[in-house]
Specification:
With 295 residues, the chain is an alpha+beta fold. 27% of the residues lie in helices and 21% in strands.
Length: 295
């Protein structure tokens, strides 16, 4: 009888262990679903955040928003303010040299009192909201530096504007479209394709996938990926050779289409990599796009 009871106890204990393991795995999956997706940045996107109102730094590829440290700077002592000024002077830069390799542990030295202190004094600053060191506070982590900056060329088949951008290797096509909004406010009204077969499902880009997941070759030896975008007319509009008109009943009103909008944005491009063919007609079909581009 004692042997049977011991076997039963072992069986019950075994089932409890299995249920506990399954519960832990389930909780981890739920936590991963609740966490926001990790964002990726170019170094050029980080370097512009170098003011007290918006300050970012990089530590071993991790992008940290240290802006909250300066929000409560008025309550700091004069010495603490000096360390914050030192940290602000390096905002937008990579501070990995002050930390051990691939670790968020600052490099230390021994001061005159025999105490171990960081060689980078601002490492002693904490987030006022959590009282954690700023480099160890998950609430301040906003993303990571991209594995590989990828150039991409976007060709607007309506206006024949060519826009060259640098995006992150991990960016989805949807992320690329969001970054393209600075050049064309109507980017969401276009069909984004890998080829010129407008309306076909074969070359249609999946907005939730990256360049490589959509079939592009992204490496140093491959050509620049080309994305073709086709403007989709809203319901109730008629595309003519003279422009785009909006018709309602018996009256037609001329509206500002994406053609004029992108022409304005093209002149404001900071990198000057957009090219415009002003003499090309805009009523070309997708099949004649190469011939029209030569005119």
């Amino acid at each position: 009888m004692d042997i049977d009871r011991s076997n039963q106890c072992r069986t019950v204990t075994g089932w409890r262990c299995i249920l506990l393991i399954l519960l832990k795995s389930y909780m981890k999956k739920m936590e991963s679903k609740l966490q926001p997706p990790l964002k990726y940045f170019l170094r050029d996107e980080v370097v512009i955040h170098n003011e007290a109102t918006s300050a970012w730094v990089i530590v071993h590829g991790t992008v940290i928003d240290i802006t909250p440290l300066f929000a409560a700077a008025e309550r700091k002592t004069s010495l603490q303010k000096k360390t914050l000024q030192w940290l602000l002077a390096l905002a937008g830069q990579d501070l990995s040299s002050f930390f051990h390799n691939n670790e968020l542990t600052p490099i230390e030295r021994t001061n005159r009192n025999g105490e171990r202190v960081p060689i980078f004094v601002p490492c002693l600053e904490r987030n006022p909201a959590t009282q954690l060191y700023w480099y160890r506070d998950p609430a301040l982590v906003i993303g990571r530096i991209t594995f590989h900056p990828c150039p991409v060329k976007i060709i607007n088949t309506l206006t024949f504007h060519e826009t060259e951008m640098i995006v992150c290797y991990e960016d989805t096509i949807g992320d690329v479209r969001e970054k393209y909004l600075r050049y064309n406010d109507n980017a969401c009204r276009y069909e984004w394709r890998k080829d010129l077969s407008m309306g076909s499902e074969t070359g249609l880009l999946r907005m939730d996938k990256t360049l490589t997941e959509n079939g592009y070759q992204v490496n140093l030896r491959s050509p620049i990926p080309v994305i073709w975008i086709f403007y989709i007319l809203p319901p109730g509009t008629i595309d003519t050779t003279n422009g785009t008109h909006s018709c309602s009943g018996t009256s037609c009103n001329t509206v500002n289409g994406p053609q004029a909008e992108e022409s304005q944005n093209a002149s404001a491009s900071p990198d000057g990599k957009q090219s415009i063919n002003a003499t090309t007609k805009t009523n070309c079909t997708a099949l004649d796009i190469h011939e029209c581009a030569k005119n």
